[in-house]
Amino acid sequence: MQGKPIINGVWSSHWIFIFAATGSAIGLGNVLKFPYLVSSNGGGAFILLYLVCLLLVGTPIMIAEVFIGRSKRQNPVYAIRNILQESGCSGRWSFVALAGVLSGFLIFSFYSVVIGWVLSYVVGISTGDFIGIGMQEAKQVFYQLRDTPETILRWHSFVVFVVMLIIVGGVNRGLENAIKFLMPVLFILLAALLGYALQTGNFTKGFYLLFSIDFSKLGWDSVLSALKHAFFTLSIGVGVMMAYGAYMPKQASIGSSIFLIVLLDMLIALLAGLAILPMMITNNMEPAYGMDLMFVTLPVAFGHMQAGQTIGFIFFLLVTTVALTSAISLMEPVTTWLSEHWGWSRLPTCIFLGIMVWAFGVTALGSFSFLSHVEIMGFNLFYFYDFVATNIIMPLVGLFVAILAGWIVNKRILSEELAMKSVFVFNLWHITVRYISPLAVGSIVYFMLVEKLSY
Ligand code: PHE
Questions:
Q1: What is the pLDDT of residues 118-166, one digit of tens each?
Q2: Lower Cβ count inside 10 Å, N or C end of the chain?
Q3: Closest CA to 402 of 183, 96, 192
């Protein structure tokens, strides 16, 4: 077996694992991508479709990833290599896991830029910059921020520093302490926003807007989007769940933990939508989505409503918290891999990775200014990184994990490690991960390669 088993410790409780994984899952995807996908694909109809994807693809693969991590207690690349070799296959295929681990870099680089924008709004809103602002003006503020590298560079450096400071502490002193602080903050901030939304008097309207079902807007593209989003939001296909799973206590049940995490991720995505929509309705605004929602429309709403400064501050702080718990998870797999691979302790590994990821992030933040002339397949670097990670690497790694768990690993080993109480549920999981998940994920990979890359 290659590499020493476990060098980093174990989460001090089963619940910490659940919160850490939930923290990774809930991220910018829930606040930036999900509302946009729901609104442009028929509301409740998309939510139903997405639930099916979570159940048939996301959850089974997530269980498989945590299984891989916990059974070997090593970094994702070594864990996969050992599993392959024990099953009589070539360990070389572990390069797929390496691609996943390295794609954490891609996601982190645009994540860090967005966190930089969000932090600058935390400051801007609380100092009253948006009071009474109009749409046009708000747009200008955002574009100016986005296109001025100096300001964002400072925030980006700050974000990389904070994340690496947490990571360097390792699983217990670093990750665990951060999670113990950030997750309660996240729940309290979200509850505060929901409380506010409830008293605007437009909560039910927001509810109908979110859940109204329009099947005519669903198409093939919606299925692909739902599948891809299931990967992104559950943080699968990048080694995060394998790395976090490697620290999971042995006696904890993988299956039920993952169910809870998926449920929480979904619930919080919906609650975030329910907190935001009533505010838009109260301010007579057309709901916008994606970047425009967060950085233009909402700030205008905050600038015009009662207690807008406080509510806006809470909102952007919430987004920061949500994004930070995901950002740290993105750096963990590559940190454990490098330190186990080179035999380095965490400090030099984190310094090295910090510099690398900082430099990489600079290319993402420069996509709107000094690197705006660089275009790949019609995307600037910022969007290209997202494209490669979400459309290609995550589904490929997911497909690989599904094949590994469904076809390669001995069923007895799986059943021992997962130790599910019900044989029926275990068999259901096994059949899904063997047939349904690979077929579904294979179709994303196929469509992405055939449709998008063939021009
Ligand atoms: N799940 C995070 C989100 O929804 C993104 C993420 C992807 C985090 C992969 C870690 C790993 O924003």
A1: 999 999 999 999 999 998 999 999 999 999 999 999 999 999 999 999 9
A2: C
A3: 96
425 touches 255 (CB < 8 A): yes
CB atoms within 10 A of CB 338: 21
Average per-residue pLDDT for the chain: 91
| 54 CA → ligand 1 middle, Å | 15
Secondary structure letter of residue 369 according to DSSP: T
CA of 236 to the centre of ligand 1 (A): 8
* SS3 state of residue 419: coil
- 325 Cβ below 6 A of ligand 1: no
Task: Indicate if ligand 1 lies below 6 Å from the C-beta of 390.
Answer: no
Query: CB within 8 A of 63, min separation 6: which ones?
Result: 254, 255, 258, 418, 429, 433
Residue 103 Cβ < 6 Å to ligand 1:
no
CA pair distance 130, 142, nearest whole angstrom: 11
446 Cα to the center of ligand 1, angstroms: 23
Q: What is the pTM of this model?
A: 0.94
Query: How many angstroms separate the Cα of 134 from the Cα of each of 119, 124, 146, 267, 427?
Result: 21, 15, 18, 33, 57
Residue recorded with tokens 């997962």: 418
Nearest-5° Cα angle at 241, 119 to 15: 80
Decide: 413 and 106 in contact? Cβ < 8 Å. Answer: no
Which residues, in sequence order, are CB contacts of 447 under 8 Å at separation 6+?
A: 224
Inter-CA distances, 217 with 38, 49, 50, 60, 213, Å:
10, 12, 14, 28, 9
Four-point Cα dihedral 105, 80, 225, 109, nearest 10: 0
Joined tokens for residue 18: 């659940």
CA geometry: angle 168, 173, 177, nearest 5 deg: 110
How far apart CA 369 and CA 276 sit, in angstroms, is 30
Model pLDDT for residues 310-343, shown as the tens digit of each residue: 999 999 999 999 999 999 999 999 999 999 999 9
How many C-beta atoms surround the C-beta of residue 180 within 10 A? 14
52 with 222: CB under 8 angstroms?
no
φ, ψ for residue 234 (rounded to 5)?
-85, 5
Average pLDDT over residues 387-407: 94
Rg (CA), the chain: 21
Q: What is the pLDDT of residue 1?
A: 46
Residue to probe by mutation, ligand 1, list 107, 391, 394, most atoms within 8 Å of CB? 107
